[in-house]
Amino acid sequence: MCLGALLLLCLSQAELGKVWAQQQTGMLWNDANGHQHEMPPQPNMAPREQRLSYTRVVREAVGGAVTIDTLPDNMTHLVEDNGRYYSVSWFGPDDRRTDELWVDLNNFQHGQVRMHGILSNTHRQAARVALSFNFPFYGHNLRQITIATGGFIFMGEVTHRMLTATQYIAPLMANFDPGFSKESTVQYMDNGESFVVQWERVRLRGREAEGAYTFQAALHHTGTITFSYRDIPLPVEMISSPEHPVRVGLSDAFMVNLPSLQSPDTQRRMIYEYHRVDVDTTKITNYSAYEFTALPTCLQHDSCDLCLSSKLTSGCAWCNVLQRCHL
């Protein structure tokens, strides 16, 4: 039976990601090593700092918008992938697989590919988009994602002011400004089996003369994720910015509410990042690619017998309260 601290174990992957409160309170963040950080509200932030710290999220086909802040890069803790959730392969300019992984959006029929008008003309914004299929991310199925101008996809169910901290698929998270040029676009395509987002000819904010970047992320119905790069004018190590984190890889987390120490009537939200995949960014060049192959997870088992006896996974346990298999 799942009680006390064991309850957190049973909720450690998909379920706790659904536990969320809408109160505008302070937020705690736990990295994968258990270190806790707090981001209190900042109502007295200077106007210039406010402009640098928010991202507007447009909810397509839902209506309304919310504003959120990004998390400073020094608040994160990098965690090496242990091969538990994904296996990672890199392909260079001379690999045939590199060309195979690139999805040429010009090959699809009119109407299948959409250029997002808002994202293609703005800076530090994100849009909620529905998928036509269930996409398994870290073992749990998602039907909505959030595309950001900053070269990443947010995979959380509820947007918040720590959008860049975790729960992302990031082919190249950086301070891109598609609004700088009419040639810069953010496009996406959904053919029922794959969902592809392409950041085309986007430039770094304040460093536009250094060149345009073109790259894409593809989410396949099998759970495989690919990052493909066409134009990378500068090495990733040279594009750091105090105004926006620079990351490449995957991350997932769950969220819980905690009672406030100052007031029992209010709550604080805690984000726990339980896993992250970071790749070698020195290998990101023109005509290169990364492929993340999803490995079997405990969450895919829907019965206690399969959970405890399946040869596809190991270390799984069955939670009777949630009727879920977990690691």
TrEMBL record:
Q: How does it sit in the membrane?
A: Single-pass type I membrane protein
* Main location (coarse class): membrane
Q: Which UniProt keywords apply?
A: Membrane, Signal, Transmembrane, Transmembrane helix
Signal peptide range:
1-21
Q: Where are the transmembrane segments?
A: none
Please name the InterPro entries in this protein's record.
PLXDC
Which cellular compartments is it found in?
Membrane
Which cellular component terms (GO) are annotated to the entry?
membrane
For this chain, the family text in UniProt reads: Belongs to the plexin family.
Name of the protein in its database record = Plexin domain containing 1
